[in-house]
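FORM 12-B: Structure-to-Sequence Request
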C-alpha cells in the first residue's frame, strides 16, 4: 500500500519571511567561505526522473557523512543527496562550530540503555571529535580544526547547578578524566571574566569552521561518485515498493532512503511529536586578539554557561569571538519562525548585553556579522535515529544544538544498518522505543514552548540581578519532571 508524506518545506531563500527580516541570511561562516573559496565542483538541480540505490534527503553534516561512509563501504552503490538549497546552507553551516562529547549526558544515556552502552555512546562521540580532525588532514580540508576543552561555567546564582549527577556518575564509572570540575581560581589563570565561577569540564573537545567542513565534505563525496542535487526542495516522500522523492522539478526512486533534514524534518507527520524547534542567534566580533591575550584566552576552549537559555562562545584563529545564545522569545512551528517581536535587532541587542556582562571591555566592540536559525530539540536532548517504514526509510532528528561531532558518529553507525550489517536496535543510538514522552501536537506544542521559554528568560534575568521567584522556579521545574528539554 502506497503512503505519501507531504513536506512543508521552507528553505532559507529570499522569499522566506524570516530570512528577509533576519540580521544576516547566511552568517559569518558561509560568507567567509564565499569570499575565500575557489571554484567548487558542480551539483545540479533534480530535473526529470532518476534512480539511485540510496537517496539522502538533506545535505547537512548528517546527510553528507552518511553519503561519505556509504561510498567508502560500498563504492559501487549509487548514492544521491537531494538538498533544497546548497549543501551546508542550513544549521550545518551556521552553528558555532563546537565539537563536544556526550559525557554531560551520561545520566540520560544510562537511564536509557544502562551503563555499558552509555559509555559506548560517549566513547563513540569522543572518537568522532578526533576522527574529524584526522579526516580534514587526510582530505586537505582547512576547516580551522583546533582541539581544546569544553567548559560549562557557573555564573553568579548558578553555582548550585555544578552539583550535577553526570559528574558523580562519571566518577563512579571511573570516567572522571572525561568529565570533572575545575575551580574558579584555576579557571581564572586561564581565562578571566568577572562572571566565571567554577566550571564543569570535558578535556576532549574541539572547534571548527563548520561551513568549511561542510564544503569540504561536499567536495569529497562528489569525488567519491555521490550524486548531489541542489536547489531541489522536496514536496512528497512516497513509500511504496520503493522510496520515491518528488521535488518541484523531478523525482528520484530508490530502494532505501535517509531523512537528514534537521529542523525541517519536523514538517513530516511521523516526526512531528519527536521534537520542538527553537531559535538560536549568533554574533561574530571583529578581530580582538589583543583583548584575548590580555584575559589569557589563547587556547581553543568551547565555553557555555549553565542557563537553560544558555550562552555559548569560542574564539577563531584570527582572534574573533563567536557568541551565541537561545535567550530569545522565538519558537518555530515546523521550522517557520513564530516570533513575539518581528524586529531582528532584539536578539542581537540581547547578545550584545550578555557578552558585555561576561567581558565588559567588549561593550562597544563592532560585530562583523549576526545571524540565526532553527535548532531541532528532541525530548532527551540527543538525536533520535530510527526508521519510518520497515528499515527502508531511515531518519535522524533532534541533534539539539550539538550535531557537529555526533553527526559523524551517528552516520558511521547508521551506515551499517542501511547496508544490513547490523540492526539499529543493536546500536547505542537513541530510538523512538526508548522515549518515555513525546511532545503534544501543535498548536499546543508551539504555544507551550513559547510560554515556557518566556518564563525561563524572565526568571534567569531576575537571577542575574540577585532576585529569585519561588513560584516561577516551581513552574519551570514541571517540564523537566515530565521529561521535556527545557
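FORM 12-B RESPONSE
SEQUENCE OUT:
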Amino acid at each position: 500500500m502506497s503512503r505519501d508524506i507531504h513536506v512543508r518545506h521552507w528553505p532559507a531563500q529570499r522569499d522566506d519571511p524570516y530570512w528577509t527580516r533576519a540580521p544576516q541570511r547566511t552568517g559569518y561562516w558561509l560568507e567567509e567561505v564565499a569570499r575565500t573559496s575557489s571554484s567548487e565542483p558542480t551539483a545540479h538541480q533534480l530535473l526529470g526522473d532518476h534512480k539511485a540505490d540510496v537517496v539522502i534527503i538533506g545535505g547537512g553534516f548528517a546527510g553528507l557523512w552518511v553519503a561519505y561512509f556509504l561510498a567508502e563501504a560500498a563504492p559501487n552503490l549509487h548514492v544521491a543527496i537531494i538538498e533544497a538549497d546548497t549543501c551546508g546552507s542550513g544549521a550545518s553551516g551556521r552553528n558555532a562550530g563546537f565539537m563536544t562529547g556526550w559525557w554531560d549526558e551520561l545520566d540520560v544515556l544510562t537511564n536509557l540503555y544502562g551503563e555499558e552502552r552509555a559509555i559506548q555512546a560517549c566513547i563513540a562521540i569522543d572518537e568522532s571529535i578526533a576522527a574529524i580532525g584526522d579526516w580534514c588532514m587526510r582530505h586537505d580540508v582547512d576547516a580551522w580544526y583546533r582541539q581544546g576543552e569544553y567548559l560549562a561555567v557557573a555564573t553568579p546564582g548558578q553555582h548550585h547547578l555544578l552539583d550535577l549527577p553526570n559528574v558523580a556518575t562519571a566518577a563512579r564509572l571511573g570516567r572522571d578524566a572525561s568529565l570533572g570540575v575545575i575551580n574558579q581560581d584555576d579557571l581564572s589563570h586561564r581565562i578571566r571574566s568577572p562572571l566565571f565561577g567554577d566550571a564543569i569540564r570535558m578535556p576532549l573537545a574541539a572547534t571548527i569552521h563548520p561551513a568549511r567542513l561542510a564544503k569540504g565534505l561536499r567536495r569529497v563525496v562528489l569525488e567519491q561518485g555521490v550524486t548531489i542535487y541542489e536547489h531541489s526542495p522536496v514536496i512528497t516522500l512516497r513509500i511504496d515498493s520503493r522510496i520515491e522523492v518528488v521535488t518541484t522539478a523531478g523525482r528520484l526512486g530508490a530502494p532505501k532512503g535517509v531523512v537528514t533534514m534537521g529542523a525541517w524534518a519536523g514538517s513530516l507527520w511521523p516526526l512531528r511529536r519527536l521534537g520542538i524547534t527553537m531559535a538560536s542567534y549568533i554574533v561574530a566580533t571583529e578581530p580582538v586578539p589583543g583583548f584575548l591575550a590580555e584575559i589569557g584566552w589563547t587556547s581553543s576552549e568551547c565555553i557555555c554557561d549553565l542557563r537553560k537559555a544558555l550562552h555559548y562562545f569560542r574564539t577563531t584563529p584570527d582572534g574573533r569571538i563567536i557568541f551565541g545564545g537561545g535567550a530569545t522569545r522565538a519558537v518555530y512551528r515546523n521550522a517557520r519562525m513564530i516570533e513575539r517581536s518581528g524586529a531582528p535587532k532584539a536578539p542581537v541587542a540581547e547578545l550584545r548585553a550578555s557578552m558585555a556582562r561576561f567581558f565588559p571591555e567588549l561593550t562597544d566592540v563592532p560585530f562583523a556579522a549576526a545571524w540565526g536559525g532553527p535548532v531541532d530539540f528532541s525530548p532527551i536532548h540527543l538525536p533520535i535515529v530510527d526508521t519510518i517504514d520497515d528499515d527502508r526509510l531511515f531518519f535522524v532528528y533532534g541533534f539539539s544544538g550539538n550535531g557537529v561531532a555526533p553527526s559523524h558518529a551517528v552516520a558511521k553507525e547508521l551506515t551499517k544498518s542501511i547496508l544490513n550489517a547490523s540492526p539499529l536496535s543493536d546500536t547505542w543510538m537513541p530510538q523512538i522505543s526508548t522515549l518515555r514522552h513525546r511532545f503534544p501536537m501543535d498548536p499546543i506544542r508551539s504555544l507551550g514552548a513559547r510560554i515556557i521559554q518566556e518564563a525561563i528568560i524572565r526568571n534567569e534575568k531576575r537571577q542575574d540581578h540577585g532576585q529569585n521567584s519561588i513560584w516561577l522556579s516551581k513552574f519551570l521545574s514541571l517540564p523537566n519532571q515530565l521529561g521535556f528539554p527545557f
